[in-house]
Design a protein that fits this description.
- It is a single chain.
- This protein has 327 residues and is of the alpha/beta class.
- The protein folds into two domains: 1-42; 49-323, Rossmann fold (3-Layer(aba) Sandwich), CATH 3.40.50.
- 33% of the residues lie in helices and 21% in strands.
- The protein is built from eight helices and ten strands.
- The chain has helices at residues 3-42, 91-98, 100-107, 135-139, 144-155, 173-184, 242-252, 313-323; strands at 49-57, 60-68, 78-84, 110-114, 161-171, 191-195, 211-217, 260-264, 267-272, 281-286.
């Protein structure tokens, strides 16, 4: 072997381990960078507080208010509760009336307060197309179900949403829309919880069972407990009754037709169990109660009904929602 060959061999032997170490360190650095990149992608940044979002649906600019609690674990898919304002209201009305932000802050979920539509350019006199009701939205056949689906798609660009834990509630016209979402968007919503709103959409043909929780006062003069045209109704709609609405969901979900009943103070609570796919149907009847959100605040109008404070509809809703995700 020549002297040059021996020298080259010794040089490779001395430098081989050094280059292997450098190569391994480089590979390790690349792995760390990739992991950090994936982690940053998997855990999106979403500022806490109330955020207004806008989108275009049906050539209309639509908007919603999103509440993000301060202490929220964004590393896991989140539950979402939609809260729909009453007829002629808006997202801010729904936020104040229901106090759902406090429930969300305590339990760690997102709240969406959408705005309906109106012939006016401002956020006044807004309504929802719930089927037989109400106002501008119903008269112009506004696609509010499609709007809600568009909101969910928009949310998914911001944060990971748990598809098994999307819920809807609403007051009056908003409660009527919640029923319609149960009829037409059962693939999306695990449960609905209408307040002072009955099922006024036909035909109601849900694609799968939906858990339902209802709240309604027996002295509601806007949307009567036993149906018909309320003496204080501004729109003259012949509303479906609470018993009719409950009976539909009990039958569709194949629940035990005999409810468990508990009465206390001004509240009668009925629960239908044994329903398909782990769903349930419940009704809180407020004896002598008017057109109001139990445990919330009134709309502030001089003629507005005062809500009972015996129960908190918002707190009870979250308990119900949490117990009834999609299977």
């Amino acid at each position: 072997m020549s002297e040059d060959s021996v020298s080259t061999s010794q040089h490779q032997t001395r430098n081989g381990p050094k280059w292997r170490l450098i190569f391994l360190l480089l590979c390790l650095s690349l792995v760390i960078i990739a992991c950090r990149y994936r982690a940053s992608r998997a855990t999106p940044s979403l500022p806490a507080g109330d955020i207004t979002r806008t989108l275009t649906h049906e050539d209309r600019q639509r908007s919603y208010l999103l509440h993000v609690p301060q202490a929220l674990d964004l590393s896991h898919p989140l539950a979402v509760v939609f809260v729909f304002h009453g007829g002629t209201g808006n997202a801010q009305n729904a936020l104040r009336m229901s106090n759902f932000n406090q429930v969300a802050d305590q339990n760690g979920f997102l709240v969406v307060y959408p705005n309906g539509t109106s012939r006016l350019s401002s956020e006044k006199l807004l309504t929802w197309n719930g089927g037989a009701c109400c106002g501008y939205a119903q008269q112009n056949n506004v696609d509010d179900v499609g709007f809600v689906r568009a909101i969910v798609a928009d949310l998914q660009t911001l944060v990971a949403i748990d598809p098994a834990r999307i819920y809807a509630t609403g007051m009056s016209n908003g409660g009527i829309l919640a029923h319609r979402l149960g009829c037409e968007a059962a693939d999306l919503f695990a449960a609905i919880a209408p307040v002072a709103g009955t099922l006024n959409f036909s035909p109601c043909s849900p694609s799968q069972p939906v858990s339902v929780l209802m709240f309604h006062g027996t002295a509601d003069t806007h949307l009567p407990y036993n149906g018909g045209v309320g003496p204080d109704s501004l729109i003259g709609v012949d509303f479906a009754s609470v018993p009719q609405s409950v009976a539909f969901w009990v039958a569709f979900n194949a629940c035990n037709p005999q409810p468990q009943t508990i009465s206390f103070a001004d509240i009668q609570h009925q629960l239908w169990s044994g329903c398909r796919d782990g769903t349930a149907v419940e009704l809180y009847t407020i004896l002598g109660g008017g057109h109001a959100w139990p445990g919330g605040i009134s709309s502030g109008r001089p003629e507005a009904d005062q809500p009972t404070q015996t129960i908190s509809a918002s707190a009870l809703m979250w308990e119900f929602f949490e117990a009834h995700p999609k299977p």
